[in-house]
Fold:
Amino acid sequence: MDKRLVSLEVENFRSLRKIHLPLGDLTVLVGPNGAGKTNVLKVFEFLADIIRTDLEPALNARGGFDQIVFHGGEKPPSSIRINATATWTTHSSRNGPDEYELRITRTRRSTGDVLSRREAFQFKRPQGRGRRITISGQQATVVNTGATGGTEDSIGIKSFSSGLSTLPRLHGAGGEEVSAVADRLASFRVFDVAVPAARRPARISRHREYLEDDASNLASFMLMLRRTDPSSFEQLEEDARRALPQLDSIEFEYPANGSNEVVVVLHERGLRRPTPLVDASYGTVRLLGLLALLYDPDPPALTCIEEIDHGLHPQALEMLVERLRDASERSQFLIATHSPALADRLRPEEFVICERRDDGSSAIPAVSLADVRRIVQASDDLPLGELWFSGALGGDL
Structure:
């Protein structure tokens, strides 16, 4: 996958006092509860909300600056910083990536606290040229540089609006490139199967069906997948049989109260009649929701999944990791887990250890990739989960 998020830097966002996280096609955050894994996912939720609603509403939805700024240390920090590098625009590369940085600063005054923001976009241009957009106060400054000189333009902007939400509406002056970044960030999703909702009948859409972030339209999405991409549906069904040995096939029924709704039913060996998903086990529903996600033909740029192993039998994890790698050719995945069984199936470059320091801040990664590889080699290639759980890769379990 050519276009991807390369790295994330965060300062003073919740427990993320200062982290630098390289991101591959599949990145799995491994650590105990409270280590900060969820807060990494919340950074992406925050950025996506800024694009959908703007900076002030996104902050207010989280209780304001005080609620999301790092709470450790002797005094509260005065700023929050988020920096993302990626290869999303036409001329970007790993050696010359796109870069976006947001800094939110709180200034204490006798009349009350004042919040301000500063943003910066850096884009690679053809033939060594570059474009940098800086947003501060009520002004966005666009600087184009090249071998023979450069140009500078200014654009008015509301004092606490974000360039991510404003500049894509403008023609020229970098709006097209900012739009490319914003479209990618806005598409990020945090996926979590809401089992009660996924069990229920789903309304059949006449338009292209997209899997909801909570899999609440699981039945209609799977029906759409069978109709539009039969080979992918067959592979999904085969994966489900691999994890659920009693399963024969996945079918669909239409409730008597209306043909515009559909339910998933499972045909299982030894049973006289099919099992509707409403009667299936918690783990079965979660597994089907995750498989539907991994066979999504039109995925977002990045999918985040928290505690992906929750409710799943360990025998399903091997297959799930294989499918994650396959799906990561179309979409990046950022996974959070504290399961040694899942970590056992990972490669060192997919594995990021998360720990909580005594000052309340998160160490992410707590062990460098080079050290992980060295420890694995010294242990005669023991599985990563076993090394982590034993303390060889860190002390916090």
In short: Residues 163 and 347 are 38 Å apart (CA to CA). The chain is about 30% helix and 30% strand.
